[in-house]
Each structure stands twice: as C-alpha cells, then as structure tokens.
Amino acid sequence: MKRKKLLIIEDERAIADILRYGFEKEGFEVRCAYTGSRALEAVGQDKPDAVLLDWMLPDLSGTDVCRMLAERYRIPIVMLTARGTVEDKLYGLEAGADDYITKPFDMREVVARVRAVLRRFDRSRGITEEAEFQCGDLLVKEQEHSVLRNGEALNLTPREYELLLFFLKHPRQAFTREVLLDRIWGYDFAGDTRTVDIHVQRIRKKTGLEKQLVTIFGVGYKYVP
Ligand code: CA
C-alpha cells in the first residue's frame, strides 16, 4: 500500500515534532508547516493525502486555513485545538473540517482519527470515480447528468440535481443548512436557509428518497442510504 502523505500545520514546534514522530512511526510520510500561509503553499506543492491543522496559528486562523483548503482542494482535514466547546467544534466543522481533536491529545487517537477520515475519503472517492449512484429504484449517472427512477428520467432543476448529488456523495454525513447553502449555492447567494428546505422537499418528492433524506432537528440534513 502506498504511504499516505500527511501535512501537519502547527506553529508550536514541540507539538509538531511529537506529531511528526508519532505519524512517521505509523508509516506516514510527514511534512510540517509552521504558518498558515506556508501551509497553503505546501498543500499546493506536496499534494498531501490529509491535513492535520492547528486552530491557533500566528498569521491566519486555523478556520481561515480550513475554509481556504476546503474551497480549493478535495482533501480531508482534521482540526487540532485546545478549545473544546461544542460551539467551537461546530465552527470548525462548518469551516470544512472533517474531524476535530482537542488538546491535550492521545497520539493513538490522533492517528486513528486521521486514518478514519482517510478511509472515509478513499471510499467516497471510489464512489465518485464510478460516478453512478444507486439507491432503491433510483439511479443517478453523473457523467450523463441523468436521474432515473425505475428507468424513467426525472426532471430535476440544476440546483436540485447538485444538491441530490452532494448528498449521494456524502452518505451519513450531517450538514447544516448554512453549509449546504455555501456548497451548492455559493457564498454570495442572497437567499436564506428556507431555500434548502424547499429543495430537499422537492427532491424527496421527485426521487422518492423520503426516508433516506433525513431531517436532523435543529441542525440540518443527512443522506442515509
Ligand atoms: Ca498553535
């Protein structure tokens, strides 16, 4: 199996060294970046398989780095931080992080979490390469941009199609309405989160994925195949 490349973004050298040692021992190829701007360069150059990102950096905030990475690259990000409140955790996850670890950390846990996001990511990429999604009597062919139910083509609007595809590509992951708005409609979209609700309702009706597109009360939605 190919060695996984990990980029550690942490300004405290002592912590970065501990992490580097721990991951190298587990067979990872490790690079370290000590500032946010250097980290953005390093991701572009080294194309790491995953990023371990500290929240507190000297130049950019961890969330800024996280948001920029999530926008530019498809790469799993694990946030590392001393903060541990629920709000901070949600904030990090909304910025595009895939998981979250609080300091002080247990090295074995950090490695396990990074491995878990890598596995999830590889799996989702495998599905993406096939570019065909089947759920019950529904078949979505990404290349053809078609949605078939019992072999019959469905008429989805472009946004409905994009939102459906997004859910299919991220099974079992919960998304807030705000995140869905950002990902599907973009940051400059002027509408509100009700837009997401309306689209989800329409997709449920058209595709028959009534049970699979789950409402998470007070949070948002997830797709459970
Ligand atoms: Ca730090």
Description:
α2 (36-46) packs parallel to α3 (62-72). This protein has helices spanning 13-25, 36-46, 62-72, 86-94, 107-130, 158-169, 177-185, 194-207, and strands spanning 5-9, 29-33, 50-54, 77-81, 99-102, 132-135, 138-141, 146-149, 152-153, 175-176, 213-216, 220-223. It is elongated and about 60 Å long. The chain has eight helices and twelve strands. The protein is an alpha/beta fold and 225 residues long. It has a five-stranded parallel beta sheet with strand order 2-1-3-4-5, with helices on both faces. The protein has two domains: 5-125, Response regulator (Rossmann fold, 3-Layer(aba) Sandwich); 132-223, Winged helix-like DNA-binding domain superfamily/Winged helix DNA-binding domain (Arc Repressor Mutant, subunit A).
Topology:
Elements lengths: L4 E5 L3 H13 L3 E5 L2 H11 L3 E5 L7 H11 L4 E5 L4 H9 L4 E4 L4 H24 L1 E4 L2 E4 L4 E4 L2 E2 L4 H12 L5 E2 H9 L8 H14 L5 E4 L3 E4 L2
Parallel strand pairs: 1-2, 1-3, 3-4, 4-5
Antiparallel strand pairs: 6-7, 7-8, 8-9, 10-12, 11-12
Helix pairs in contact: 2-3, 6-8
Bound molecules: calcium ion (CA).
Offer a quick outline of the entry.
This protein has eight helices and twelve strands.
What characteristics describe this protein?
225 residues; alpha/beta; Rossmann fold; Arc Repressor Mutant, subunit A; 2 domains; 8 helices; binds calcium ion
